[in-house]
Design goal:
This protein is α/β, with parallel strands linked by helices. Helix content is 62%, strand content 8%. The two termini are 51 Å apart.
Amino acid sequence: LASIVIAQTSLMRLYLEADAKRWLAALFWAALGAGLMIKGPIILIVVGATVAALVAWDRKFAWLARLRPLWGPLLMLAIALPWYIAIGLVSDGAFYDRAIGQSMMDKVANSQQGHSGPPGYHLALVMAMFWPGSLLLARAVGTVWRRRGEPAVRFLICWIAPTWIIFEIVATKLPHYVLPTYAALACLCALALYEPTPAKTSAGRVVFVVWSLLWLAATLAVAAIGPAAFREFEGRVPAQIATLSVLTMLASAAALWFFWRRDSTKTLAALGAAGLLGWVNIFGLSAPALDQFWMSPRIGAAVRAARPCEDSALVTVPYSEPSLVFLYGRERVVLAKSGEDAARAFAETPACAVALVGAVERDAFLKRAADLGLSPMSVGEIAGRNYSNGDELALTLYRNQTGRHGGQ
């Protein structure tokens, strides 16, 4: 997100300023290089769609010369290419097959891990995902329409619209996919908030009333998610979380009051307070305390307590979150594809290996392990919910009964 915002801000100035300095072009291409290294071609999708939309709208190409196309791409490649060469060599090309062939391209045509949704998915969620700034979106639409001829507004439209459409079409959908457009949305909302408000029509008042009610519903959901999650998974609601939820609602009510009274600065201050309270409550207090969702730290601790060797390999199926790999060690985690596959990997170092097996794969794992002459014994149970897809998991930790001195 940071690299995209830097690239787009540089691009905006290059588009708007006929005498733009060379360092802006250098910053633009450097941000592209960093973005390519961090997240692959996503930054090219956003920036490329913006440039294409601007050219189509203006029917002018001359300003593209300010991007310094002769040396700019070389700067981008100088930043990103060494990493891509290194990862290709280290993985023997497997990185490209998995990251591009299996992950990125498959997401375009097919929904991965159940993350699907119809066109309009991101639009339907924008009230909650852009909260609390979503209060200003209805006014921003009118402002954008009236001022669409201004070059800066036109740039922001071209930043948002094509990228948004692309992610609405892609089969795999997650709420954060349109996050690269939020900086532009925020700019347009700020413009609308401080624009002299035109005389309101009856239809406009109805729109604002309906939008305000929808925003209040989203606010209630944001304020309630922390206490509701604790009640569901822990059977209690801590006092500090309940207090922050109430304060979030009060700050939101104040923001709505000031918004209707057209006090822009107080509206902005109240929205900032509501956002700070709401997100601290969710991400600072509630989410970290819900142990049910954070399985990797508990798995890592259980494996270290039960492993027969200091360097025991961990064979795991179906749980394969990257956090587990980072916490236990990249060289010591084996991601199995099935129960049988897990048993075969377990059999490679039966005196030291530990296996983490899900309930669905358990029978196949035990049967195949017995066929290989192994006697896995349960040394722990870890239950919880996979935060990435919401699946409830019951995992069993095994090691071979023959311990360090046996095995086949």
